[in-house]
């Protein structure tokens, strides 16, 4: 079979109308690719439109503050993507005079840009013949060619890249790459793929051997870490609260949250007040503490599950400088905090 021809014909007939599809400007393609990393198109599309509206050029994005970028990104998760996006925009403006890199090799110099993103931008914007390999591509190729090598192993990453590059239509890499990803999203889906109408069904090894549900193969993930967060939601008589910016390299770097007391397990108020972090927020005698949610809110991240309870601390005055309650929504916060703010109705 002529794989590339069949694929491109399918793509031209079935591709979705997406706002970045008509673009060749590398800035917009880069923006869409970073936003859509580990994100479904339905979720990412509104964010793409917001970013394009607020930052119509790489100069606008570079000139923004990190807090503004994080606030606009709020709810997408994996916030390192937003920080890398902002850092790369400043690099392009300050070091490259606003000229976007035009080759796969040079694109890899951008922070947060790896093989997949560099391949996508280089092929879509500059027709460079480099194959993309993402989750959709792994699934399509593993099924059609019956490949059992784990897709998250060193051997698998190399094997699938070589195969994708071999299949690539060197004269039309843009449509080929977009077609392969689109095919995985619409036709060769993870669950209930459209095998009866698939143009490759006659040659698909997984379909012939009834191994569709078993492919692709992925090595077992690392153990999920469980963490227990207790947020102290201070509310003073003059309607202020406390927010702290997360530092370091952990989750939610640069975002804001209420004072946090992390414990080894679910805790009682009697034990909570014994924690050093709690005692560091010395308050006046006229203080009352009430548990907002008896049942912890479970927030699931890729490698950790966070069990969270919010403690409402009403006090005469704050132990430190506060934030007016009416301004609380101006700060970039994790979605976990955002949902609490919405439910508490300050």
UniProtKB/TrEMBL annotation:
Gene Ontology terms describing biological process: base-excision repair; mismatch repair
Enzyme Commission (EC) number: 3.2.2.31
Textual note on the cofactor: Binds 1 [4Fe-4S] cluster.
Residue ranges of every copy of the HhH-GPD domain listed in the record: 35-186
SUPFAM superfamilies hit by this protein: DNA-glycosylase, Nudix
Catalytic activity: Hydrolyzes free adenine bases from 7,8-dihydro-8-oxoguanine:adenine mismatched double-stranded DNA, leaving an apurinic site
Keywords for this protein: 4Fe-4S, DNA damage, DNA repair, Glycosidase, Hydrolase, Iron, Iron-sulfur, Metal-binding
Single Gene Ontology MF annotation: 8-oxo-7,8-dihydroguanine DNA N-glycosylase activity
Cofactors, names only: [4Fe-4S] cluster
InterPro entries: A/G_AdeGlyc_MutY, DNA_glycosylase, HhH-GPD_domain, HhH_base_excis_C, HhH_motif, MIG/MutY, MutY_C, NUDIX_hydrolase-like_dom_sf
Similarity comment text for this entry: Belongs to the Nth/MutY family.
PANTHER family: ADENINE DNA GLYCOSYLASE
Role, per record: Adenine glycosylase active on G-A mispairs. MutY also corrects error-prone DNA synthesis past GO lesions which are due to the oxidatively damaged form of guanine: 7,8-dihydro-8-oxoguanine (8-oxo-dGTP).
Protein name stated in the entry: Adenine DNA glycosylase
């Amino acid at each position: 079979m002529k794989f590339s021809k069949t694929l491109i014909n399918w793509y031209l007939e079935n591709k979705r109308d997406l706002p970045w599809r008509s673009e060749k400007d590398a800035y917009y393609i880069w923006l869409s690719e970073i936003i859509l990393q580990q994100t479904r198109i339905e979720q990412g599309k509104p964010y793409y439109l917001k970013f394009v509206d607020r930052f119509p050029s790489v100069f606008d994005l570079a000139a923004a503050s990190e807090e503004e970028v994080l606030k606009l990104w709020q709810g997408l998760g994996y916030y390192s993507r937003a920080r890398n996006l902002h850092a790369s925009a400043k690099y392009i403006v300050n070091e490259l005079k606003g000229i976007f890199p035009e080759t796969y090799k040079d694109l890899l110099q951008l922070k947060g840009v790896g093989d997949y993103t560099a391949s996508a931008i280089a092929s879509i914007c500059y027709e460079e013949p480099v194959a993309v390999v993402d989750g959709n591509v792994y699934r399509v190729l593993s099924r059609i060619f019956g490949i059992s090598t784990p897709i998250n192993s060193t051997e698998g990453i190399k094997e699938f890249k070589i195969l994708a590059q071999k299949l690539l239509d060197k004269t039309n890499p843009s449509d080929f790459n977009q077609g392969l990803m689109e095919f995985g999203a619409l036709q060769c889906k993870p669950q209930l793929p459209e095998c009866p109408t698939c143009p490759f069904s006659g040659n698909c090894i997984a379909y012939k051997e009834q191994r569709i549900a078993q492919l692709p193969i992925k090595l077992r993930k690392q153990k999920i870490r469980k963490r227990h967060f207790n947020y102290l939601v201070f509310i003073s008589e003059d309607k202020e609260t406390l927010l702290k910016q997360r530092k370091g390299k952990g989750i939610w770097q640069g975002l804001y949250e209420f004072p946090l007391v992390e414990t080894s397990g679910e805790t009682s108020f009697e034990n909570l007040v014994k924690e050093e972090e709690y005692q560091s927020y010395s308050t006046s005698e006229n203080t009352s503490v009430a548990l907002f949610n008896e049942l912890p809110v479970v927030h699931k991240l890729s490698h950790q599950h966070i069990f969270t309870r919010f403690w409402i601390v009403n006090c005469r005055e704050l132990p430190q400088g506060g934030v007016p309650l009416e301004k609380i929504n101006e700060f970039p916060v994790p979605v976990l905090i955002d949902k609490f703010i919405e439910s508490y109705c300050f």
